[in-house]
Amino acid sequence: VVSLVFTSAYSCGKPAVPPTVSRVVGGQEATPNSWPWQVSVQHQMDAVWFPSCGGTLISPDWVLTAAHCIKKGYNYRVQLGKHRLSVEDEEGSMTVQVAKMLVHGKYDDHLTRNDIALLWLDHTIELSDTVQPACLPPSGFILPHQASCYVTGWGRLSTNGDGSDSLQQVLLPVVEYNVCKHPDWWSFLMTDKMVCAGGDGKVGSCMGDSGGPLNCENSNGIWEVHGIVSFGAASCNQVQRPSVFTRVSAYVSWIDSILMQYG
Question: Annotated catalytic, 68?
Fold first, then answer.
């Protein structure tokens, strides 16, 4: 199990501004800074920076994201403590360059297997009320059917629509593996190293949310990142096509090995 030691007063999974959570399924604007581990991953093209994916801060040096978010030939940076992407110098936010990108060695972009990557920041950041890490789940932990989790991001608000300027959150109940792998659902595309959530045809993750966290509160009131947005239906909210996440608990030992290797 990863043991992340923080040198400040901030521990993982405890936002200074608690999220406003609702058990009613539906998207809404998040309370600013209530998901302080949410990261905007951005790439550079012709000297201009473009938001490309989401990510999760898991320590003062490391961001967790999806492997499919990382493309060769691009420089990457992350913005932390953000609520509105259009506000360049938003209070409590910071922009940090990525020093190294580490994609899982068995990532398969054809079948979307092992869709996980780590971004090593070019310096250790200082944690604050607006920038805090998420906790990782226990290794091997399986979320129960209908567990209430929240996906967060700046992705499209509707199919073929525009991305959101302000951070959004949506409640997505977990769908157990045996249901999600059914031929009428995701069939062979689903593996036991993934998590399904949603699938009611009303809400889901969408383009631009990729790489971002599936946030689940444990019995002690601590928020853990149980999933990384990986893929979903082309329409973003199709019935029996729930959002699919890389199951973080299946990769805790891999994450641990990378963090130990790089110190």
Answer: yes
Find the catalytic residue in 83, 93, 115, 243. 115
SS (H, E, C) 170-214: EEEEEECHHHHCCCCCCHHHCCCCEEEECCECCCCCCCCCCCCEE
Please compute the mean of the pLDDT values over residues 40-66 and round it to a whole number.
Answer: 95
Dist. CA 46–CA 53, nearest whole Å: 18
Catalytic annotation, pick one of 34, 59, 68, 164 = 68
pLDDT, one tens digit per residue, over 57-92 is 999 999 999 999 999 889 999 999 999 999 988 999
Q: Among 8-22, 27-41, 86-100, 120-134, name the one with the lowest average pLDDT.
A: 8-22
**Three-class SS of residue 247?**
strand
210 catalytic per annotation:
yes
**Is 209 an annotated catalytic residue?**
no
Q: Alpha-carbon torsion 148, 156, 78, 103, what sign? A: positive
Give the H/E segment covering residue 112. Answer: none
The active-site residue, picked from 210, 230, 243, 249, is: 210
pLDDT of residue 213: 96
The rounded distance, in Å, linking the Cα atoms of 148 and 126 is 31
